[in-house]
Design goal:
By secondary structure, the protein is an all-alpha fold. It has four helices and no strands.
Length: about 140
């Protein structure tokens, strides 16, 4: 799955590096659609699985219900930036899609989606989850 995401993001980056002729508008739309698919079918499940497994482990380590409630609340707080990052990625992707549909310049929106993904990666690292990087335009 990580390899699929890396390959897809490489294609997105390559398309974004060139101008947009009519056929390139279609390519942009296809790339944006693939990014949405990968986000929904790969990234989100990775996040959900890591969150669920980690939450179960936090609960299992607690001696009683009260301790578990406190620990799980702290766990949720640690994950808030990750979920906010995913929401930001979705919003940036939607803006990219809207720009493509309006025949605007998609490059700034594509770059914003990349930035949102990179920020999501950083947030995921804070909870010890490594999401794949963009292969061509690497996250800094």
């Amino acid at each position: 799955m990580k390899r699929q995401l890396s390959l897809l993001l490489a294609l997105v980056c390559l398309v974004c590096l060139v101008g947009c002729s009519p056929s390139q508008w279609q390519q942009q739309a296809e790339m944006a659609d693939r990014v949405a698919t990968v986000s929904n079918e790969t990234v989100l499940p990775m996040l959900q699985q890591a969150y669920d497994v980690g939450g179960m482990a936090v609960i299992a380590l607690q001696p009683d219900r009260e301790s578990a409630a406190v620990a799980i609340e702290e766990y949720r707080k640690r994950w808030q930036p990750v979920w906010a990052g995913y929401d930001a990625l979705k919003a940036a992707h939607d803006a990219w899609q809207d720009t493509i549909e309006a025949k605007g310049d998609p490059l700034p929106s594509a770059v914003a989606a990349r930035k949102a993904f990179c920020e999501l990666r950083v947030a995921a690292l804070s909870v010890e989850l490594k999401l794949p990087d963009f292969p061509v335009l690497r996250c800094e």
